[in-house]
Amino acid sequence: QLQLQESGPGLVKPSETLSLTCTVSGASITSSLYYWGWIRQSPAKGLEWIGSLFYTGTPFYNPSLKSRVTLTVDTSNSHFSLKLTSVTAADTAVYYCARFELGIGRFDPWGQGTLVTVSS
Amino acid sequence: SYVLTQPPSVSVAPGKTASITCGGDNNEGNSVHWYQQKPGQAPLLVMYYDSDRPSGIPERFSGSNSGNTATLTISRVEAGDEADYYCQVWHRSSNHVVFGGGTKLTVL
Questions:
Q1: pLDDT digits (tens, 9 = 90+) for B12-45
Q2: A112 reaches B (C-beta below 8 A)
């Protein structure tokens, strides 16, 4: 059964870089049917799509975050990663990773989520 | 930019039918997916391609999409259906994903 697990620091200082990793287990990260995505959720903005990428490394990003986001994939370790630069308090959120099924456009399943707080 | 509009809240008595709408001027031609999120949990896919149910989702959940409005309908509502519900669209032409603002379903 496919499972996704987010990991990374729960506290990041303003202006620094938020880095998270999503480990995929129970299925291949190199499937041609799926992208791998990041979504965040804050009380102020609800669910916000950050971006998604293919196992070959081809990404697509939310235009509103594109200038600060980098997504990468490590197929040998079956994980993919998010970097968000120049963070502010507005980036405080629960960050989820999820499998994105290309063609259908749905996210399923999701990781349990990890809270990242931006504070000095 | 793409916007999906949901009512902030819907209330329904147990055993009745709840309808949650998702409006967007770009809905037409794009499939709508729905997620259920209970407190402290990750979102769970409950409807995809407007009206298809993933395995394990009760038949009480149904969906439709007509014109510019998609609707998630929950029949014979139970206390366990109380949750936040989000719609989502993938605009394939631009590879842009959008979520609605969410609807809190309260079972009276």
A1: 999 999 999 999 865 557 889 999 999 999 999 9
A2: yes
